[in-house]
Amino acid sequence: MSDLMLPLAGIKVLDLSRILAGPWATQLLADYGAEVIKIERPGSGDDTRSWGPPFASDGEAAYFHCANRNKRSVAIDIATPEGAGLVRKLLAQCDVLVENFKVGGLAKYGLDYASVCKAYPKLVYCSITGFGQTGPNADRPGYDYLIQAMTGLMSVTGQADGEQGAEPMKVGVAVSDLFTGLYAANAIQAALRRAWMTEKGCHLDVALHDCQLSALANQAMNYLATNASPKRMGNAHPSIVPYQVFDTEDGHIVVAVGNDGQFNAFCQCIGHPNFAQIEGWKTNEGRVADRSALIESLAPILKSRTTDQWVGAFTTSGIPHSPIRSIGEALTSDQTRARGLVIDHGDGLRTVKQPVPFPGQPQTPPPSLGQNTQAVLHDWLELDDNDIDRLRKQGTIQ
Question: How buried is 377 (Cβ within 10 angstroms: 0-12 exposed, 13-18 middle, 19+ buried)?
């Protein structure tokens, strides 16, 4: 299938972002056919190129590879007047700019929204920061860990008070960054559609703080409905029972009983159909109210058999469940293989595939630093080899 048939084919994106939230957003755009030019600092590039170990087979940090597929790397020092000028010239051909500098940080290069929108009124300009362009925290740096703490996510993650190891916990992946990248990519596509209809671009003010608050979902609504902040519950669910991890004879298993019919089938499967007839346990509301007694009754039953034995029994009975896999086990599972979710680029380099593909989607690995500098400056700005050599010798580009 031709690249022109990809949904974002023909869209050009200038990516001035680094680390995770911004690169995650632009990677999604690149996956769907947008041409993403990643502007990086000569010599070092995106911070995450050095965030190792571990390192991939090409010498780059594994972290960098998670968020930069299907892009082109152009190494330009925007701190120099000539470098900033090159970026502004590249911007003239772009539909989207994505940046995650501190608020006001691009003004000294003439690349802030106020400067850029005058020259390119149809441009979609996306700023990604910790706290947004306004508010008392606008000037503060924002990191995923801090955002998880400040938005309450850590307050509902971890063992309950009184349990062994009880303390607020961060999620094992930088979810605040990832949520922000997803929201940003979605908003950029919406803004592009509006720009096509109105001939006017806009400034998207995307904040990790705001996106993570929104992604609290039912936990945020639980507070807004009751004025009571949810508490940490370990692996249990605040609104569904039984929906948690149970010890087995040789490990653990997750049971996710989502409705009363499933609970009845679950009770049949574990050999205690009478549990489904106990008045307080017939409905989910009753099971939530009597959580402690129910879990106390279920725990020794689940611990009486091995994980594999329960997997077999629950699979046969249609009970939602899963053993707890390592990441390695998950990436090499039969389901992962069947879905083709791991791409082997050769020479030992493997990456995770875009999970919602279109036919003809590109599958290029993340670029080396400055890999496309010469080609982009030649093709986009029509610079000849002598101009490019001069810029490289003076350190403006790599």
Answer: buried
Distance CA 362, CA 8 (A): 12
Residue 26 phi/psi, 5-degree rounding, is -70, -30
Is residue 58 annotated as part of the catalytic site, yes or no?
no
> What are the residues whose beta carbons fall under 8 Å from the beta carbon of 343, sequence distance 6 or more?
350, 351, 352, 353, 363
- Which stretches in the chain have pLDDT values below 50? 1
What is the model's pLDDT at position 2?
56
Q: Which domains does the chain have, with CATH numbers?
A: 3-215+339-393 (3.40.50.10540), 243-326 (3.30.1540.10)
Catalytic residue among 31, 112, 177, 210: 177
Which pTM was predicted? 0.94
DSSP string, 7-54: TTTT-EEEEE--SSHHHHHHHHHHHTT-EEEEEE-TTT-SGGGG--SS
Residue ranges with strand state E in 262-387? 321-323, 342-346, 349-352
Cα distances from 362 to residues 9, 15, 70, 93, 218, in angstroms, run 11, 18, 6, 22, 36
Question: Residues 104, 97, 201, 131: is their CA dihedral positive or negative?
Answer: negative
Q: What is the pLDDT of residue 3?
A: 58
- Residue 55: DSSP 8-state: B
What was the pLDDT predicted at 1?
A: 43
Taking Cα atoms as reference points, which of 14, 75, 78 lies closest to residue 369?
75
Q: In whole angstroms, give the CA distance from residue 241 to residue 256.
A: 8
Longest dimension (CA), the chain: 84
Q: What strand order describes the sheet that includes 96-99?
A: 72-75, 35-40, 12-16, 96-99, 124-129, 202-207
User: What CA–CA distance (Å, rounded) separates 210 from 153?
Assistant: 12
CA–CA gap between residue 158 and residue 168 (Å, rounded): 5
**How do residues 161-191 score in pLDDT, each as one tens digit?**
999 999 999 999 999 999 999 999 999 999 9
- Strand arrangement, sheet containing 243-247: 243-247, 252-256, 321-323
Work out the burial of residue 2: count CB atoms within 10 Å of its CB; fewer than 13 is exposed, 13-18 middle, 19 or more buried.
Answer: exposed
Cα→Cα distances 30→149, 171, 174, Å: 31, 27, 21
192: its two tokens: 């592009």
> At a CB cut-off of 8 Å and minimum separation 6, what does 373 contact?
73, 74, 75, 76, 388, 397, 398
